[in-house]
What does this fold into?
Amino acid sequence: MSPRRCALPIAAAAVALACASAALAADVRSFPVAAGSGPHDVAASPAPGGPVYYTGQRNGTLGIVDPATGRVEEVKLGARSAPHGVIVGPDGAPWITDSGQNAIVRVDPATRAVKAWPLPGEAARANLNTATFDRKGRIWFTGQSGWYGRLDPARDDLKVWPAPRGYGPYGIATTPSGEVWYASLAGNHIARIDVETGVATPVDPPTARQGARRVWPDSKGRLWVSYWNTGQVGMYDPAAGAWREWRLPGANPQAYSVWVDERDGVWLTEWSSNAIVRFDPSTQRFDSFPSDRARANVRQMLGRAGEAWGAESGTDRLVVVPTGRP
It folds into this structure.
């Protein structure tokens, strides 16, 4: 991958693509993965140089990339598997939301053993999306058909709740203080889950029908939300009950995912310009990193200190951008 970088003030959104085309090449690396795997989500283990995991949604696998060598290993997850999300848990293992198996799946990082926790019958078609761990080691997850749930792996205790506004739960994340929030793509809101009772309380962004797709906290506990329908990034401060919103560069932006790095830089994926985008809240500046291949379709971003990782589902590649760039 040899994308180009472009630094933009927020007022310069109209010239985003032209500026990106003229910028110098960024220090971005790409890693080919198994052809036809359709990498959907990606998660880097926290240790520098450690393995990077991705979900092979089209071939029912967990992919494991060694960034030092580029070597790719695949672990078959089971019959009918179609994994969506992957995160690294507090135990150091990759945990997967598998919509095909309708189950939460763990892969042992040492033995590659696969264990699955199927959802109960009332959530038989949950359309599982993403997951996050709370401070007690329980994994919370979303199902786009109108469900969210919690698994306590230590007790094999799995519970599900119908979402208060039905269809749409998608991205989910845990704040530094331990709160769990999800974003509802079809429901156009975010919601706070009481981690003890399971009750979810929706909060509406100022922009209607925005398509809140993914959510991620910064170090201050503020929530950053990617708006798929309106091409914005929103920021909600739960302490103040206040919102701010910014429109991404380009004529018709579509913001898919959002992730916040260790310096509180906000990373998004933008489909209309085929780019990874970084937003600096302190300067309100966007940096754009377009792919060198058409229809890269980066669906998810996660990372670790110094690195922002994305999965190019349209090209069967992973990409990594250094987060320390000015």
Summary: The helical segments are 16-22. Residues 8-25 have pLDDT under 50 and may be disordered. The longest strand covers residues 298-304. Residues 16-22 form the longest helix (7 residues).
